[in-house]
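Notebook entry, structure prediction.
Reason for the run: the old model in the group folder had no record of what sequence produced it. Starting over properly, with the input documented here first.
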Amino acid sequence: MPAERETRIIVLHLTKYGDRSIVVQALDRDQGRTGFFLRGAGKGRGGLNYFHSLGILDVIATGGKGDLEYIKEYESPYGLNAIRTDPYKSAIALFIGELLYRSLLDGSMDADLFDFLEDSIARLDAETGSVANFHLCFLVDYCRALGLQPKDNFAPHSPLFQPFTAEFTAADSLAETFTAEHSQLLHGILSLPRPEAMALPLSRDARGGFAQKMVEYLSYHLSQNLNIRSLAVLHDLFS
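New structure, fully documented this time:
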């Protein structure tokens, strides 16, 4: 019998395989980005209810199909009912799941990064106020968790954020910078307590433009083209 192991995973992406099986792309707390094979999906135990974007599961896995491990057993340590049923939280979860899927490649997982993601997911599910700014705060916090935090040297003489040097620069700089509005917003998210940053009044265009700029910032510093298609859904939803 193949060796079994217990681990905790965060679901990122699902692909249907046949009539009752799925391939699960997930972040494994022990092994990083990992693929799993789930047979008999849809039979009992809530079927696929637990397998959604950012679903957190404790699984027993065993060696199996090619590079994929079989998920032998699973249970959810969190209900995450709001993420599954609230359209706004579901859309944010879809965005974050796609961001993680495209930015975290195969390889070992840093335990602190996994804990940050798990805590962020739990906070999204438990949030009782508006979540319109959640993905903006998450993008900035994710940069910090990856060791790519922008330097908050915002000042009257350096009001514009320069993404390539990751710091604020003078308004007369010849380098490409964030707009004044996006720079001010970045400074706010970097410096304000999270409840205050979550409550910042923003237009749909301000949110969408800032999120796109932060994705581009991550793309540059990770040397990857992060084409996040679900970002357009958030832009339309939080109007």
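Summary: Residues 4-75 form a domain with the OB fold (Dihydrolipoamide Acetyltransferase, E2P) fold (CATH 2.40.50.140).
The old model has been moved to the deprecated folder.
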